[in-house]
Amino acid sequence: MSRTTVTSAGTTQVAQSTYTLRGQLELEYAAVNVGDTSGVVARHQYNAAGQEVSLAEYFAPGTIRSYLVGNPKMGEQDLVEVDISGWMSHQTLTTYQDGRVLQVSELGRTGQAWFKGTPDPALTALSTVFYSTASGGSGYNTAGMLVTYRYQNLTSGYTHTYTTTYLKRDTYLEQSVTGVSTDSNYKTTTTTSTYDQMGRRVKIVQTTPIKNQSPLTQTRSFSFDASGGF
After folding, report:
1. How much of the chain, in percent, has pLDDT values that exceed 70?
2. Cβ–Cβ < 8 Å for 37, 19
3. For the chain, how big is the Rg over CA atoms in Å?
4. Backbone angles phi, psi at 70, to 5 degrees
5. How much is the pTM?
6. CA 151 to CA 127: how far, in whole Å?
7. 138-152 per-position pLDDT tens digit
């Protein structure tokens, strides 16, 4: 499949994509001028159930990074350019259990000089989201609703834990979400939602406890007209 666009400079570019036999997006190619050689910028992989397990992203053709070498005090510096076209830039890995997301890992590039060493060096683990409790229990309730997950920042070393409660009506409505962090720079915050008889969200209250002070509270209210418009 091809998509043609015209840039602000009037240049016609073409971006191509390929799909699996199931009709799922598989390869995405960089948009290039008509007649130029393109390169893969994204690769999607799926499990037997058709769920995406990997999204790998790559630097587009013509991507250059540069750095200086030599002794600046002696006036002996040279600019070294590295063509990182086609090197992997980012990857998202997803695992499942019984059809539900169990873990999502993000890998990428960190620092200012990662491209100086071995060509296309391995990615660095950036973060992981666990859809489970700290003790390894399921993050979903018996109805299959997500009730807790943990975001772990691997570069800074902190973990955010989110817990959700639901109000059971004809369907499950999100009643509250509480976020707790191991990083003291983040304050525990609870967001509580109120619904009308039709299941429409009419109020959101965000509460953050402050030590030796009254809690910080923010409230948003919503109303609807007779026809149900917001």
Report:
1. 97
2. no
3. 24
4. 115, -175
5. 0.84
6. 7
7. 999 999 999 999 999
